[in-house]
Amino acid sequence: MRVPNSVVLPVGTHVDCCQKEDVEVKRRDITAKIVAMLAERKSNLAHFIDNLEGSEEPEFYVDQWERLKEMESCTLTILNLVAVNCTDYCDIKKLEATILEHVKNEELFPEVTRVLPPVYRQVEAAIVDIAQSEEMAGHGMMDLQYLLSKLCQWKHLANLGRELLQDILRYLHRIGLVVWYEEIKHLESTVFLQPTFLITMFKLLVRYRLVQQLESIS
């Protein structure tokens, strides 16, 4: 809701736990809740803005007013919900095809046809090689400066600078090839070259019915 021109694809899982006739009912219910949530957000923002504009000394609240107006201008596109059975490979492929279809839609993503500089592809290919090398630790974590030094060993990347690498890492983070939490102080110097490791860790920590599973242990 805070990112300009966001596109959201709702995905309903655990279809296998529902009766066939319930799926469409739940789909309509979820869609209605999303519409209501967006309407409430719009109403709340308008209310907060009116309060600031109607205050006795509005000049003291200019920063808050500007932030609220910026949030109010953020459009949010909600695509049709996709219901999937995560235990069915065909459903996973259907979800994958749906995502790719939307991503290639230039109306939703105008920058999809933007041509990247060759160095982006070169760094991407080099990072894939590093991540798949035998010397890479299983957790796939690497210090940002050390990664830069490794990349500079490639002849065509010898002049790669830290600032350009950071720009490329932002792009690779957006497409999911790496994970780089530059906004988190304690993690800004760490690059996760193997995001699947993080997924595995999260699955161990955040689990469905975790409380019930723990309570069942004597």
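^ that was protein a. below is b, sequence first then the tokens
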Amino acid sequence: ASVSEPAQKCCTENIQPFLTSILEELMGPVSSGFTEVRSLFDKEVNEIIQDFQKTNDMTRLKENVDQLMTLPFNSVKMEPCYLKVNLLQELLQDLKSRFKVYHIDFVIQRTQNFMQELMENAVYTFEQLFSPSRQADSAKVATTIEKVKLRVLK
């Protein structure tokens, strides 16, 4: 009871007024990273579509889709997404001194884990939605892939 009132006053005066601006500042790199994940997925699926349109090879299409399933674990391709979030390092350093925010690396790592999880969900959903269409007429496959991609991105 004796701590509650001073703690409430401290939060109201020293922390709450800054929360909105802090969140806005932090969301820039986070949003940028997730946008990069979306762009990477879009780019990879577009490459599958282009390759299929050139070759019309269903076996190669299956290989490309199988390779897409490994995308979340491909550190080279995911690296640009992760780099966007590394900007949090600088932003959180300022917060560390002002608000005693610790474990900056943990915040960045968790954000990158969420990005990988989002990509895992995207490729899994793509594969699940596209699987029944693999036996379809090869003339319609590219269109189907595009529709599935748009559905996943939605």
